[in-house]
From TrEMBL:
<comment type="similarity">
    <text>Belongs to the ATP-dependent AMP-binding enzyme family.</text>
</comment>
<dbReference type="InterPro" id="IPR042099">
    <property type="entry name" value="ANL_N_sf"/>
</dbReference>
<comment type="pathway">
    <text>Phytoalexin biosynthesis; 3,4',5-trihydroxystilbene biosynthesis; 3,4',5-trihydroxystilbene from trans-4-coumarate: step 1/2.</text>
</comment>
<keyword id="KW-0547">Nucleotide-binding</keyword>
<keyword id="KW-0587">Phenylpropanoid metabolism</keyword>
<dbReference type="Pfam" id="PF13193">
    <property type="entry name" value="AMP-binding_C"/>
</dbReference>
<protein>
    <recommendedName>
        <fullName>Acetyl-coenzyme A synthetase</fullName>
        <ecNumber>6.2.1.1</ecNumber>
    </recommendedName>
</protein>
<dbReference type="GO" id="GO:0009698">
    <property type="term" value="P:phenylpropanoid metabolic process"/>
</dbReference>
<dbReference type="Pfam" id="PF00501">
    <property type="entry name" value="AMP-binding"/>
</dbReference>
<dbReference type="GO" id="GO:0005524">
    <property type="term" value="F:ATP binding"/>
</dbReference>
<dbReference type="GO" id="GO:0003987">
    <property type="term" value="F:acetate-CoA ligase activity"/>
</dbReference>
<dbReference type="InterPro" id="IPR011904">
    <property type="entry name" value="Ac_CoA_lig"/>
</dbReference>
<dbReference type="InterPro" id="IPR025110">
    <property type="entry name" value="AMP-bd_C"/>
</dbReference>
<dbReference type="GO" id="GO:0019427">
    <property type="term" value="P:acetyl-CoA biosynthetic process from acetate"/>
</dbReference>
<dbReference type="Pfam" id="PF16177">
    <property type="entry name" value="ACAS_N"/>
</dbReference>
<feature type="domain" description="AMP-dependent synthetase/ligase">
    <location>
        <begin position="92"/>
        <end position="479"/>
    </location>
</feature>
<dbReference type="InterPro" id="IPR000873">
    <property type="entry name" value="AMP-dep_synth/lig_dom"/>
</dbReference>
């Protein structure tokens, strides 16, 4: 470690896929000067029943020139499931472990080799075909992190059906809303699941969702229900004869081979609704060929993947991270993937590291929220496990505060493992800005540089590109293979939400700063930017300053109206386990922000928070915090996407008390 630069070890670089900045620059240069050549070389490593036509990519990225349109490998005929499974088996990896499964309770586990996984996928694919699911039909999947979840995704892909995974934590209303939007033929679910110490009866939620969607004119005839006997006896479940079918009764009897439905590269692979941190969910559509090539390539380079690696991503397949970096990206590379059912700190704070040691995990990918929550506990919960197998760590979902980055690097990775802080979105399909471990020095809190083929730019309010050191709106100038192609059933919203703010560019919605060395720093969503006396302040900067205070575990800042300054900074602060609130501590937190950023960023208020409202994917929902901060309590909006709505009441109760 040198100043703010953290260099990979020489040993790591020697064995890395991209081992120096020069090597990256060489590859990056080719990828943007000759994208067709660059990407078709990579795509040729996959199996294509028929090669794509003479155009690798065709796009219109500019609303002023007409309809936004992105196509990659059009005319190429392939199948994502075949490339994940059959192709790896044919190259001799049939007996390699594809999935390790770790259950909620320690000691409860399983595994599938590539051969075994293919058989399971074929059985379910055959069942879906038997009940009339055809190419292009929708299938909603509402399953917890059992191996049946990736199995279900791959079975759909095999027969050309379009899966829409709904995170199995969403309410009946949210499930119904998504069903009504995408009108699936079948829903796949299970009776119940244990999450930590709690039993969640998923089937009851699905029953209510199906009743609700039927009232809205979308009836589903088949509810295929996996009997998760570890959580609940099957007899204890309410049954709707004719509609409900036990998975094990029918799927286990199906044949273990299933021919592949070959699809066009531009046929849809899946749709996935965004988490809803910022409003009504959008059905993001990803197609087959480009997504396949892009997720495989980003996975390989951002994690410096080697065939001997064991990879674990703590996300759920209900989010894009689980699509691209649990199911498709890793399996396309023939990797061994850990699928974990439970909560990361159940039944004890060291559970993650126990799992790392158990499966000899070498690539560990998680979210800042988890890092911060583990940081609140004593380091001893980490250090008593070996963690020797770890090679590369990863972070996604929010900006990672530099102090959380350092803790992750030093305590979890023993100062040995580079951290890939990957910036991307449901819409982008895969990483757009990410470190390549081994290629260059990292800066804690920076996602570093754009991936191959990605032309990220920072623009000002008028949409002019900024050069060098700057700060503004993060956009992309042209497409990459994994880009989303539309919003399901609403291409107009696709164009207005993403391509209209700055014509000629895809606008991510995030703010970003580029430093003097060219490193990119995501400052948070631009909707969250706070304007204090004309200074535009990203939420991430102030939060990182607060979190660097040794007694602060987590922080979220929002803007509130201020008579003089326009907006003032209002900070919600969660303290480290066992630390009491005090006036001295409040002053010391304020001082930390003043010294690290400047007096203009001084928080007006510190609001002690026993917890913060987070979406089910672990992101802080500032929209609700803004309402609490400005005391607009009767208009909190939709809070169904929150993991724990109870937190809101706690915050409101504390609002008047300790300012
Ligand atoms: P919605 O779009 O429905 O409001 P969402 O944006 O939370 O939901 P995702 O697509 O899962 O849904 O998240 C993408 C966003 O997460 C990015 O736009 C960015 O704000 C944030 N993000 C993801 N990874 C990083 C990262 N490494 N650093 C900083 N921010 C990140
Ligand atoms: Mg978003």
């Amino acid at each position: 470690m040198m100043d703010d630069l953290v260099f990979p070890s020489q040993e790591f670089c020697q064995n890395a896929l991209v081992s120096s900045p020069q090597k990256y620059l060489e590859m990056y240069k080719r990828s943007v000067e000759d994208p067709a050549g660059f990407w078709s070389d990579i795509a040729s490593e996959f199996y294509w029943k028929k090669k794509w036509g003479n155009k690798v990519c065709s796009e219109n990225f500019d609303v002023r020139k007409g309809r936004i349109n992105i196509e990659w490998f059009k005319g190429g005929i392939t199948n994502a499931c075949y490339n994940c499974l059959d192709r790896n088996i044919e190259s001799g990896n049939g007996d390699k472990i594809a999935l390790f499964w770790e259950g909620n309770e320690p000691g409860c586990d399983g595994s599938l080799t590539y051969n075994q996984l293919l058989k399971k996928v074929c059985q379910l694919a055959n069942y879906l075909k038997d009940v009339g699911v055809r190419k292009g039909d929708g299938v909603v999947i509402y399953l917890p992190m059992l191996m049946e979840l990736p199995i279900a995704m791959l079975a759909c892909a095999r027969i050309g059906a379009v899966h829409s995974v709904v995170f199995a934590g969403f309410s009946a209303e949210s499930v119904a809303q998504r069903i009504v939007d995408c009108k699936p033929k079948v829903i796949l679910t299970c009776n119940a699941v244990m999450r930590g110490p709690n039993l969640i009866n998923l089937k009851n939620i699905v029953d209510a969702a199906l009743a609700e969607s039927a009232r809205n004119g979308v009836a589903i005839d088949i509810c295929l229900t996996y009997g998760n006997d570890l959580a609940m006896k099957r007899e204890d479940m309410k049954w709707h004869a004719g509609r409900d079918i036990w998975w094990q009764d029918v799927v286990d009897k199906c044949g273990t081979t299933c021919s592949v439905e070959w699809v066009d590269a531009e046929d849809p692979l899946f749709l996935l609704y965004t988490s809803g941190s910022t409003g009504k969910p959008k059905g993001v559509v990803h197609t087959t060929g480009g997504y396949m090539v892009y997720t495989a390539t980003t996975f390989k380079y951002a994690f410096d993947y080697k065939p001997s690696d064991v990879y674990w991503c703590t996300a759920d397949c209900g989010w894009i991270t689980g699509h691209s970096y649990i199911t498709y990206g890793p399996l396309l590379n023939g990797a061994t993937v850990v699928v974990y059912e439970g909560a990361p700190n159940y039944p004890y704070a060291g559970r993650c590291w126990e799992i790392v040691d158990k499966f000899k995990v070498s690539l560990f990918y998680t979210a800042p929220t988890l890092v911060r929550s583990l940081m609140r506990e004593a380091d001893e919960h980490v250090t008593r496990y070996s963690r020797k197998s770890l090679r590369v760590l990863g972070s996604v979902g929010e900006p990672i505060n530099p102090s959380a980055w350092r803790w992750f690097f030093i305590v979890v990775g023993d100062s040995r493992c580079p951290i890939s802080d990957t910036w991307w979105q449901t819409e982008t399909g895969g990483f757009l800005i990410t470190p390549l471990p081994g290629a260059w020095a990292q800066k804690p809190g920076s996602a570093t540089f754009p991936f191959f083929g990605v032309q990220t730019v920072i623009v000002d309010e008028k949409g002019s590109e900024l050069e060098g050191e700057c700060s503004g709106y993060l956009c992309a100038r042209s497409s990459w293979p994994g880009a989303f192609r539309t919003l399901y059933g609403d291409h107009e919203r696709y164009e207005t939400a993403y391509f209209s703010a700055f014509p000629g560019y895809y606008f991510s919605g995030d703010g970003c700063r580029r430093d003097k060395d060219g490193y990119y720093w995501i400052t948070g969503r631009v909707d969250d930017v706070i304007n204090v006396s004309g200074h535009r302040i990203g939420t991430a900067e102030v939060e990182s300053a607060l979190v660097s205070h040794p007694q602060c575990a987590e922080a979220a800042v929002v803007g509130v109206e201020h008579e003089v300054k326009g907006q003032g900074i209002y900070a919600f602060v969660t303290l480290v386990e066992g630390v009491p609130y005090s006036e001295d501590l409040r002053k010391s937190l304020v001082k930390t922000v003043r010294t690290q950023i400047g007096a203009f960023a001084t928080p007006e208020r510190i609001h002690w928070a026993p917890g913060l409202p987070k979406t089910r994917s672990g992101k802080i929902m500032r929209r609700i915090l803004r309402k609490i901060a400005s005391r607009k309590l009767d208009d909190l909006g939709d809070i169904s996407a929150l993991a724990d709505p109870g937190v809101v009441d706690q915050l409101i109760a504390l609002a008047g008390k300790n300012l």
